[in-house]
Design goal:
heterodimer; A: 154 residues; alpha+beta; seven-stranded antiparallel β-sheet; 3 helices; 7 strands; 25% helix; B: mainly alpha; Arc Repressor Mutant, subunit A; 2 domains; START-like_dom_sf (chain A); ASHA1/2-like_C (chain A)
Chain lengths: 154, 107
């Protein structure tokens, strides 16, 4: 039996090294700039919990488990809302694949196991393109996209 | 990624139609895309290659199946370059107006 097909696949090419992309996903001073004033907190070991928090208030917005962590190549996380949030959906899964590509890096973000048409699906499909575009800009030019340096409008 | 190649890829109605099909349903195979298009399989393959080259389509292999995904990240770069900037100015203007009005209330 083949695995179900991924729901979203995003690719960006970044003129940098895999190590820098890996570090950027976890460095609060970087995520603050390209990920809407948020930070990702974990020890990044398989089995550990990770949380996506507001950089200033520490409010947890997304949380899950580290399924795989192979620096600086692959990071797999479960991705869901914190417990107790109304209208909770089962957690989805995000895979970051960081590959060297002709002297630069190809970053592939795959998001699957999302509830079809659910609130999380709507949120992430608007979120990933600016976040990845901003990560590329930050690593290549030192400047993130302005829209990702503040919290998303909700 | 060179922006020229993104615009060239978009400057063709068949290729835009392919992106529309992936927008409706992501992760389709060549065969599934061909069902909806009045084009030869070879022509669709060629158009998909141009879209892949421009990074507007990302590809995932599932066994022997090649799945095509709409990848909007290069479009985000274009948006930011022109539209995002203007929107920021408008938001800044609104913010200034709001601050002034609130100051008036207090005085």
């Amino acid at each position: 039996m083949t695995s179900p097909k991924p729901q979203f696949v995003y690719v960006t090419y970044i003129q940098t090294t895999p190590e820098k992309v890996w570090a950027a996903l976890q460095d609060p001073e970087m995520t603050r700039q390209f990920w809407g004033l948020h930070k990702n907190v974990s020890d990044w070991k398989p089995g550990s919990r990770w949380t996506h928090q507001d950089y200033e208030t520490h409010e947890v917005r997304v949380t899950g488990q580290v399924l795989e962590a192979e620096p600086p190549k692959k990071l797999v996380l479960t991705w869901g809302w914190p417990e107790g949030r109304p209208g909770a959906e089962p957690p989805s899964r995000v895979t970051f694949l960081i590959e060297p590509f002709m002297g630069s890096v190809r970053l592939t973000v795959t998001h699957d196991e999302l509830v079809e048409g659910g609130a999380m699906m709507k949120g992430i499909s608007q979120g990933w393109p600016p976040i990845l575009s901003s990560l590329k800009s930050l690593l290549e030019t030192g400047q993130p996209l302005a829209m990702t340096t503040k919290r998303w409008g909700r | 990624m060179d922006m020229d190649i993104v615009f060239k890829a978009l400057a063709d109605s068949s290729r835009r139609q392919l992106l529309d099909l992936l927008y409706q349903e992501n992760g389709r195979t060549l065969g599934e895309l061909c069902e909806h298009l009045d084009m030869s399989r070879q022509a669709v393959t060629k158009h998909l290659a141009v879209l892949e080259e421009a990074n507007l389509v990302a590809v995932v292999w599932r066994g022997r199946e090649k799945l095509h995904y709409l990848n909007p990240v290069p479009l985000q770069d274009i948006y930011e370059r022109w539209i995002g900037k203007f929107e920021r100015q408008r938001l800044h203007a609104l913010h200034t107006l709001k601050t002034r009005l609130e100051e008036d209330d207090e005085s």
